[in-house]
Write a structure and sequence with these properties.
Strand order of the largest sheet: 1-2
Number of strands: 2
CATH architecture: Orthogonal Bundle
Number of domains: 1
CATH class: Mainly Alpha
Structural class: mainly alpha
Radius of gyration: 15 Å
CATH topology: Arc Repressor Mutant, subunit A
Largest sheet: 2 strands, parallel
Shape: globular
Length: 99
């Protein structure tokens, strides 16, 4: 007898949603050759769509989670490497998006 399990579809995972948003089947694996870029508005849309799968209590926190996924995927945010975008976000650079 097969044990029933609650499997999550890979199509609903944040990396897949990022790829869908970018319109690519797969992201490049190196920063040197990376051309993928998300705008902060796209990050917000992904965070809103994935709200039930992310742990952040606020949209701001969920956007930070999406940007963390971008680090592993080698996807830039607003033309910046995600770690730099996260740093700037913490310093208030994207406040207008969360007002």
């Amino acid at each position: 007898m097969l044990e029933e399990r609650n499997h999550m579809s890979a199509r609903n995972e944040t990396p897949h949603v990022i790829n869908q948003t970018l319109g690519v089947p797969k992201c490049n694996g190196s920063w040197e050759e990376s051309t993928e870029n998300l705008t902060m508005d796209q990050v917000k849309q992904i965070a809103e769509k994935q709200a039930d799968r992310l742990t952040g209590a606020t949209l701001f926190a969920r956007c930070r989670e999406v940007m963390g996924t971008c680090v592993a995927m080698r996807v830039r945010v607003e033309g910046l490497e995600p770690k730099e975008a996260l740093k700037q976000m913490k310093e208030g650079a994207f406040e207008a998006h969360f007002a």
